[in-house]
Design brief:
Strand content: over 45%
Number of strands: 24
Distance between the termini: 21 Å
Radius of gyration: 17 Å
Strand order of the largest sheet: 1-2-3-4
Shape: globular
Mean pLDDT: 93
Structural class: mainly beta
Amino acid sequence: MLHGASHVAVSKSHGYAIDEKQRAVTWPLGSARVDLLLDDVALISAGDSGLLAIRCDGSLWQRRVGETAWSRSADAVLHVWVGDGADYYIAPGGRLYARGLAHRGQYGDGRLAEQPGWTAVAEQASEVIGHTGHALYRRMDGAVLGTGGNRFGPLASHGLGDKADRWGVIFEGAAAIATGSRHSLALRPDGSLYIWGGPEGVQPRLAMQDVAHVAAGLEDTIAIDRQGRLWNWPLGQRPSTPLQLQLPATTR
C-alpha cells in the first residue's frame, strides 16, 4: 500500500496513514487507490464522527462525516482519539477534553447528557483511547482510568454490568493502553502486557511478555514483540505462534 508510513488508523470503510512526507492519505478498504487528505500531519484518528488530525504545529483539525473540508478545532493538542460516539483530545499540561455522546458516562464527570463543543473532563492525561461507549486514559503517573459503558468489563470492575459515569483507576504502572469493544490492555515499561474484559475476566492478568506495541479491535488483540514479530489472537484464547512477518527494525 505505502512505503515510509509513520502512523496508521482505520474506520469502518477506509484505511488511513501518514506518509514519509507527513501527509495524511486514505484508501477504501480492499482498494489500492490512495488519495491525499491533508498535509503537515503528525497524528490522525478515525471513527463514527469523522476524522481528527494533529498537524505538525500541534493544532487540531477535524473533518466530520459527510464533509469534504477541514476546519481548525483547537490550537495546541498532544493526543487525540475518535471513539464510538465520543471524541477526545489532550492539551499541553494534560487536560483532557471530550465531546459527543455522554449517555453511557463517556465524559467521566457525572454528566449523562451531551454538551456543546469540547468539555474539559480530566487532568494529568498523557494518552486517551475509546471504543463502544467507553473510554480510558493513561495518567502521567502510569495509572489507567476508565469511564462509560462496562457491560462486558473493559473497565475491569469499575461500573461492571452497566456503566461508570466517573473516571476510576483500574490499573497502575502502564506505559501504553489499548481497548476494543469488550476488553482492554495495558503495557508496562518492562514489556509485560495485561488484559481484562469479556472472557478474559474482570481482573487484569498477564497475557504476554516482551511486548513493544499493542492494539485491540472488536474481538481481537494485536501485539508486536521486541523481536519485531506480529502476534494476533481472539478474545478468550492465548497468544500462539506469531505470524511469520518480520517487521522493520524501526517498529521495535
